[in-house]
Amino acid sequence: MLAEWERAWCEANHDTKRARVYLPALLEDPDVAILAALHDDHIVAGAIGNRSDGVIGWSNLFVKQMRYLRACAAGSLRMLSEIFPGLPLVGYEGADALHGALSSGFEAIGPLRVWAFGNSP
To answer: What is the pTM for the complete model shown?
Structure first.
């Protein structure tokens, strides 16, 4: 099922040539929740929640049909709140995605800085 989720995620992002990123061991991690919405036994939307430092990181939201984006976003947030009760949800959105997150009840707290370690090309 994880390989199917990843294929759907890649298709929704128009990136069908990507190598596998999400490996089966991820399903055994109690701090990770991989969500999928099904229609006729096919994955049509999904998201990931990752528990870390007292918060749930919300990421990798995708939908195959944009008209369902709001409903799928809201549904994934509800599910993550049930899976990890009592923990705040956080994300790192920009541009249009930030507007959608704000309209869903998120608050902007500032820009995100990403530090990369190791060898850079």
So the answer is: 0.82
Domain region containing 36: 2-103
Are 105 and 73 in contact by the 8 Å Cβ rule? The answer is no
Alpha-carbon distance of 68 to 24, in angstroms, equals 28
9-37 per-position pLDDT tens digit: 988 888 877 777 888 899 999 999 999 99
CATH code, domain carrying 9:
3.40.630.30
Residues 6+ apart with CB under 8 A from 43: 4, 5, 7, 8, 36, 37
The structural domain count of the chain equals: 1
The dihedrals phi and psi of 15, each to the nearest 5 degrees, come to -135, 75
Residue 96 lies in a domain: yes
Cα(18)–Cα(50) distance, integer angstroms = 22
Separation CA 48–CA 89 (nearest Å) = 12
